[in-house]
Sequence to fold (416 residues):
Amino acid sequence: MVENMIKSLEKQRKLYRRTLIIVIIAQILGGAGLAVGITVGALIAKDMLGTESLAGLPIALFTLGSAGAAMLVGRISQKFGRRLGLTVGFVVGGVGAVGVVISTITGSLVLLFLSLFIYGSGTATNLQARYAGTDLANVKQRATAVSLAMVATTFGAVAGPNLVDVMGNFALSLGIPALAGPFILAAVAYVLAGLVPFIFLRPDPLLVSKAIAENDRKNTKSSAGKLEEVMSRRGIMLGATVMVVSHIVMVAVMTMTPVHMGSHQFTLQQIGMVIGIHIAAMYLPSPLTGLLADKFGRLTMVIASGVTLFIAGLVAAFAPGDSLLLMILALALLGLGWNFGLISGTALIVDSTSLATRAKTQGSIDVFVALAGASGGIVSGIIVAFSSFGTLAVIGGLISLSLIPAVVWARKELNS
Fold:
């Protein structure tokens, strides 16, 4: 089957389109599994621990779990293909969700913490799945392929929280605590997200692309090896930098926004609306961002990311405490800047990695992205505690501007 793919461009195009459809379906399911955990994880911890002081622990645990899982999924994908890597990652996340349900029934904190850590595998796999659509994409399709996978996550992420009450009632009908209900949904969603690529992702797009690359190497001779190596190294470094910087800034400011708004007497509904608009800005513009990155180049969108995040920081910092409109604008720009950064950075990584190490490198970089998010959340609280939300937002904006000299450096090295 792989041999037939190597010889037929039409079959390669068909597999590329089919892979995108499979990834989109898996992302919708995975998004639902991810969102319900974020929605009620803190509430479960609060109930079982009897205090609000450690309510942020669930997010920290599955963020750390996602970091480890990102490397695992990347290595499995590199050796055995995307099909097995995505299947294992999503199913392990589903097992973690089942563990959370059992922990609420038994009241076991140890099982809860362990299960939340394992549950993070689903988060990592949801992020890794965006790469699968790029394996057979040409240079002008890669950012678009990433963007389609990302926007698909939105549908699941919106549907999941809206089913919290329904699943809570379902859990109660089974004699299970209501807060465990959403994790029943997460378990089913993650397992189904794993089964979709396992059943339908044949032949494996990464294995096919490797075979095509190997065939091309046998049939062509290139004298540009050294130049390509330099370009690849710079591209990987820049891609990783933009994803880490945009993620740490976004998470830091987003994490403290509800606290900042709460101190200015905004209602929970208003805070929820601002965060909802922020999340929409993170994902919904993805198709347009992908098209722009493919048409005008990755470096242009990296600069756009830095500038947009900087403006978001300034608006958040200097907005009057009672201005709901300016908080909406700041958080929308924050989500949009992150979107520009993740899509352009992902495309740079795909452009700059060889198929021999691509999945492994992608997994390793996503580890740093996950850890950056965890660090941003922790440091943001410290900065606000010792200074103010405005200081945090200004610092985040200034950090974002570092992406511009990074682009200048990378462009200079590539042109030298």
Q: What stands out?
A: The mean pLDDT is 86.
